[in-house]
Write a structure and sequence with these properties.
single chain; about 240 residues; Serine Threonine Protein Phosphatase 5, Tetratricopeptide repeat; 12 helices; about 75% helix
């Protein structure tokens, strides 16, 4: 089993069409604010969640409590300073925990805490968010993916692999990126056969991604490595004869 460690690659966003559709219905100020969260997959996922929350807040939430929560969320994400944003989001979570928007805020809080280096706090937020949603929910797997990235950064690759594998088996819109994450971590852990299978699954899903050439290269590399033991044995037997 190969144990060569590869440098993790930054995942590509797979939710752009969904996000753009949702953002198009939001006020310009809110729409522009959300753009800064599109640096990586978890941020992209969180941006979709926040956009959904705000969109419901503007167009569907009819109760006073939900409207207050949506307004508080909008104020929180417009904070330029991460510390102030975290403080505002914590207030949303605390004061509006019984609302849908308040539950959504947990996901964004986890992402911002991670960006600010508050890793343990981010884990708590993602874990709490995961408990708030059913296991067939897009939001549940968004929280699970967030935990997976934190576990990968902590070198807890087995837990990260499990999180990414579970997410890659859903049909909720981010199977491709979860498969790529699972392949990356599996390869780094030495599970080359599973990595190869996941990379092939990623290609089968035909994502629009600049990573396709990299993935094809990984498939060729892992396929070649998979054959080497057999080839070496054949050469050895031939030499012995």
């Amino acid at each position: 089993m190969s144990t060569n460690t590869q440098t993790p690659i930054a995942p590509e966003h797979q939710e752009k069409n969904i996000l753009e559709e949702i953002l198009s219905g939001l006020p310009p100020q809110v729409r522009n604010t959300l753009q800064k969260f599109l640096r990586e997959i978890i941020a992209g996922t969180i941006a979709v969640v926040v956009a959904i929350s705000l969109w419901f807040g503007y167009s569907a939430y009819i109760t006073r409590q939900e409207n207050q929560a949506a307004a508080a969320m909008g104020t929180a994400i417009q904070q330029a300073d991460l510390a102030k944003m975290i403080s505002s989001l914590e207030k949303v979570v605390h004061n509006h925990s019984h609302t849908v928007v308040g539950k959504h805020a947990l996901l964004l809080l986890g992402a911002v805490q991670r960006d600010s280096g508050q890793i343990e706090a981010a884990k708590k937020s993602f874990n709490k968010a995961k408990q708030e949603f059913s296991e067939d929910s897009f939001l549940y797997y968004s929280a699970l993916m967030g935990l997976g990235y934190l576990q990968e950064e902590d070198a807890k690759l087995d837990k990260a692999r499990q999180a990414f594998k579970s997410s890659s088996e859903t049909q909720l819109g981010f199977e491709a990126i979860a498969a790529l994450d699972f392949a990356r971590v599996s390869s780094a852990s030495g599970y080359n056969n599973e990595a190869l299978e996941a990379y092939n699954k990623y290609l089968f899903l035909k994502p629009q991604s600049s990573q396709l050439d990299f993935v094809r290269h990984q498939v060729m590399k892992l396929s070649s490595e998979d054959k080497r033991p057999g080839e070496a044995l054949a050469i050895e037997k031939k030499n012995e004869a």
